[in-house]
């Protein structure tokens, strides 16, 4: 039976990640990177598409599970009639090759365990050739090679195109399995000691978590979100992927299934704010550096997303051999939205670099000239329609959020030049642009009859992105138009106590079907309520969001209040960024990352 999205837990090595179900099965793992082909793809198909299950014989669901201390080391407990065992799953931060380590530890009695490994390379489509070598099971197909070993050695055999084993553990006994990937044309990498790797992983995460400067009432939730963001970081470059998965549906049985294993510029401002506010300056600097490398070049070629190392070509295709999670097809890899025009990203990049500068991250010599280049392009294009923040696959429009972010770009340029007059630039030029954008948005994007900003010029639809208007400083929080917008969004886009991005009923995005409430937008609602002085309401919304977290503290992109289940790619960086920002804001009395100065 298909597990729910929230039934999975995350492990990873800061270059890729795996999802482990409550039944002890790893159903998703891309090797060697987040955006590589999956060797376990049961998440989007069935067991024949690859998985690795390790559990007591005959057991279907664990008793309980959680992360060890403040780490990404997963502990799953199984209580059976004959005894109790713990399975520890983790991926050590790699020196050479990616490893998945699974350690079975007997806690009481004697428990019979069963392991079933089905490797299917290229997103669950290729059955590898299996052989034995040096006491290992070795799987090879094309460029991929995987080695499996156990310590102490456990008998394995082949059955139904899988590798199986059965063994017993008593109290105090431990059996470890290590799965290692490497390019098939290269020699096997050095062996990892699984027990030493466990101790080192726990030490590494303990040291990292100790750097968190937040000690408020929501520390557990904040730190778990920060650990999740760290797990979504591609360590070689500092890029942060939106999620480690592709095509987890926004509607069960629907077609709104997208590949999120890439780095979005739209996340940059909020990510930097969250990291800096919690004391993770090193990670913020690495993300800033990734951003500078990714956007370098002709401003006209700026993309909304890039690969983990800054790759530009992310062609979208479908995988017909995968039926989709819970029958939600198609399954897509790549993302055609990479070719869209989204003018808001120029503002988000400029704002991110402004935040980094304000936080004291040493500026790169070329960063300001790059920003001037981006501003020059935006100056001549901000009046154009675009696809907007939500990557609609319908006609281009004059989206309000895109215009507001153009204002942000000009505003941050003015403020940067005011702070440092030695920099090259003409503040009067950017003030003029800022004033023009502001006047146009207030005239064309505001509906005076309903007292709200709308999704786009002249439209009746609303958009949760307008909740960011006071946060970025476009208008002060006590402006009646801001208060009216907050109330209108809450009223018209509210869904079971949460908030939708926009109304899908009018097909503004060019797609059929519906989607769930968008969690990041609901965090924005809490932030907006706090800014306009309704702190009790803001806390109520926030704590409602906290209650949605899975048993291991993870959030997907969306939530279905009717079915009571999470939807969309998982875990979702945008949701966890929102959690950190709102939690710290409620505790400190100001919205985290609010860098704007309100205009008149």
Can you walk me through this structure?
It is built from 13 helices and 28 strands. The chain has 600 residues and is an alpha+beta fold. It has a 15-stranded antiparallel β-sheet that branches. A hairpin with a 7-residue loop joins strand 3 and strand 4. The longest helix has 20 residues, at 400-419. Helix 6 runs antiparallel to helix 7 (367-381). The relative contact order is 0.11.
Number of strands: 28
Average pLDDT for all residues: 94
Radius of gyration: 25 Å
Largest sheet: 15 strands, antiparallel
The number of helical elements comes to 13
Q: What proportion strand?
A: 15-25%
What class do helices, strands and sheet pairing give?
alpha+beta
State the shape: globular
* Intertermini distance: 57 Å
Low-confidence stretches: 594-600
- Helix content range of the residues, please? 25-40%
Provide the descriptors you would attach to this structure in a database record.
single chain, 600 residues, alpha+beta, 15-stranded antiparallel sheet, three-stranded antiparallel sheet, 13 helices, 22% strand, globular, disordered C terminus
């Amino acid at each position: 039976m298909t597990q729910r999205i929230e039934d999975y837990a995350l492990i990873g090595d800061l270059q890729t990640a795996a999802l482990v179900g409550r039944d002890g099965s790893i159903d998703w793992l891309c090797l060697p990177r987040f955006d590589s082909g999956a060797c376990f793809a049961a998440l989007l198909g069935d067991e024949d598409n690859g998985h690795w299950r390790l559990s007591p014989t005959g057991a279907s669901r664990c008793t309980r599970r959680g992360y060890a201390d403040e780490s990404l080391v997963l502990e799953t407990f199984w209580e059976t009639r004959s005894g109790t065992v713990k399975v520890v799953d983790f991926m050590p931060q790699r020196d050479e090759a990616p490893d998945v380590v699974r350690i079975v530890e007997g806690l009481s009695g004697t428990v019979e365990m069963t392991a079933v490994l089905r490797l299917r390379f290229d997103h669950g489509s290729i059955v590898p050739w299996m052989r034995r070598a040096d006491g290992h099971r070795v799987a090879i197909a094309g460029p991929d090679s995987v080695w499996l070993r156990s310590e102490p050695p456990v008998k394995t055999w082949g059955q139904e195109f899988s590798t199986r084993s059965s063994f017993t553990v008593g109290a105090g006994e431990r059996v470890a399995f290590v799965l290692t990937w490497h390019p098939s044309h290269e020699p096997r990498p050095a062996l990892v000691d699984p027990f030493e790797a466990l101790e080192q992983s726990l030490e590494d995460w303990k040291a990292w978590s100790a750097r968190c400067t937040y000690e408020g009432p929501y520390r557990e939730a904040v730190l778990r979100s920060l650990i999740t963001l760290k797990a979504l970081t591609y360590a070689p470059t500092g890029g942060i992927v939106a999620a480690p998965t592709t095509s987890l549906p926004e509607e069960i049985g629907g077609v709104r299934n997208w590949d999120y294993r890439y780095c979005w510029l739209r996340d940059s401002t909020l990510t930097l704010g969250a990291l800096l506010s919690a004391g993770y300056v090193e990670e913020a600097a690495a993300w800033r550096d990734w951003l500078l490398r990714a956007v370098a070049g002709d401003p006209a070629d700026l993309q909304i997303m890039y690969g983990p190392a800054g790759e530009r070509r992310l062609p979208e295709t479908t995988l017909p051999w995968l039926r989709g999670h819970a029958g939600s097809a198609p399954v897509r890899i790549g993302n055609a939205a990479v070719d869209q025009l989204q003018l808001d990203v120029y503002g988000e990049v400029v704002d991110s670099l402004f935040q980094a500068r304000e936080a004291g991250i040493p500026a790169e010599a070329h960063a300001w000239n790059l920003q001037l280049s981006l501003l020059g392009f935006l100056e001549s294009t901000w009046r154009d329609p675009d696809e907007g923040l939500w990557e609609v696959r319908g006609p281009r429009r004059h989206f309000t959020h895109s215009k507001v972010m153009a204002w942000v770009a000009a505003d941050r340029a003015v403020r940067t030049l005011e702070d440092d007059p030695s920099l090259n630039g003409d503040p009067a030029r950017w003030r003029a642009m800022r004033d023009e954008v502001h006047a146009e948005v207030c005239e064309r994007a505001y509906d005076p009859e309903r007292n709200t900003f709308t999704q786009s010029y002249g439209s009746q639809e609303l958009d949760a992105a307008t909740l960011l208007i006071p946060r970025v400083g476009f208008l002060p929080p006590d402006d009646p138009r801001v208060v009216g917008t907050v109330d209108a969004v809450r009223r018209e886009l509210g869904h079971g106590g949460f908030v939708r991005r926009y109304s899908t009923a009018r097909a503004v995005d060019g797609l059929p079907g519906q989607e769930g409430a968008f969690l990041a937008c609901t965090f924005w609602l809490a932030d907006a309520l706090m800014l306009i002085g309704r702190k009790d309401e803001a806390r109520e919304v926030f704590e409602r969001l906290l209650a949605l977290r899975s048993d291991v503290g993870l959030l997907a992109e969306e939530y279905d209040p009717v079915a009571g289940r999470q939807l969309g790619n998982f875990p979702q960086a945008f949701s966890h960024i929102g959690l950190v920002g709102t939690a710290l804001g409620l505790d400190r009395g100001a919205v985290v990352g609010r860098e704007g100065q309100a205009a008149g």
